[in-house]
Give the backbone structure.
Amino acid sequence: MTQQHPRIFLSPPHMGGAEQRYVTEAFASNYIAPLGPMVDAFEAEFAAYTGIPHCVALTSGTAAIHLALRGFGVGAGDTVIASSLTFIGSITPILFQNATPILIDANAATWNMDLGLLEETLAKLNKQNKLPKAVLPTDLYGQCCDMNALRSICDNYGVKLVVDAAESVGATYQNKHAGYFADAAAFSFNGNKIITTSGGGMLASHDKKIIDEARFLSQQARDAAPHYEHTTYGYNYRMSNIVAAIGRGQLEVLDAHMQRRRDIFAMYNRELGPLAGINFMPEAPTGQGNRWLSVILVDSKTFGADRETIRLALEAHNIESRPMWKPMHMQPVFKDMAMVGGGVSDALFRDGLCLPSGSAMSDADVMRVCDALRGCAAK
Ligand SMILES: Cc1ncc(COP(=O)(O)O)c(C=O)c1O
């Protein structure tokens, strides 16, 4: 019976209107290529929006992280400290560089990297003369890490700070855009993100050199010559002009879409917050998250159902939801990876459920999710 309702997706693309006009313009100019005026304009507009002056548009957020690590000289024999509670695209670029990740648990208050554990780990590695090349924390679900604290920890040890800001486009920390205080920040425009280009990413930095180098490497490291000349090797990571056209349109609606996601979170909080056993991802006082996804924590004993029972019940109502990221140290492929702590992210994965959060959701859609979820509570 409930299958008659249209499906509510977790975080589908939401076009604002101008995207198609920009794509038509790109077609008319015949720049159907991984270079062109739309790419240049998208980079300039993204730099203006974020306040991070140098930006290079790429095929993905994963590519952006990869180029940052390579640019900062991460290579074989090096280590990089990263968040365990994240998406795999945060970690694989470390492996692409033949370096070794050290994973750190989440903090229960922010769900981002536990900075106490980070500091302990750096102190220990320093004593062994084995400092990592970089620290790579994730801004989880669009909430910025504590950048002041991270900055001073990394500066203290002379370690580069690369922020995985794939999920935090539009979010702020002390009134500056996500990634502003990092040595480099990687953003994603994947199909499920707050703004999307169907697939794509951006690397941003105050350091022009690192962005120029990333731009060079993203185009197969082609030296200046009439023929193809290479003194190093690179990648085919450059964003296409058509894709950048979509990005320009999406950037125009980013603020409105972020506000809608925050409003959806506020509705969930109002409707479900009073239920015993339901808690929400807390917002750090240091900034404004974009609430890319609204995430609940389910105390199964108090609520009367666990997160998987709720997920299946929502599915029966044709509503998509998803468990939180399964921590990287729990992934079979990474079972031997070095891990510091683990209890917090294990518990968040066990109890955390991402609710539909797309900015095109109507209030009635949100209420449909709330009603279905209320139906799972112990009577
Ligand atoms: C935390 C995190 N890191 C990295 C990525 C990788 O971005 P992309 O899919 O654009 O490669 C994503 C999302 O997809 C992500 O959520």
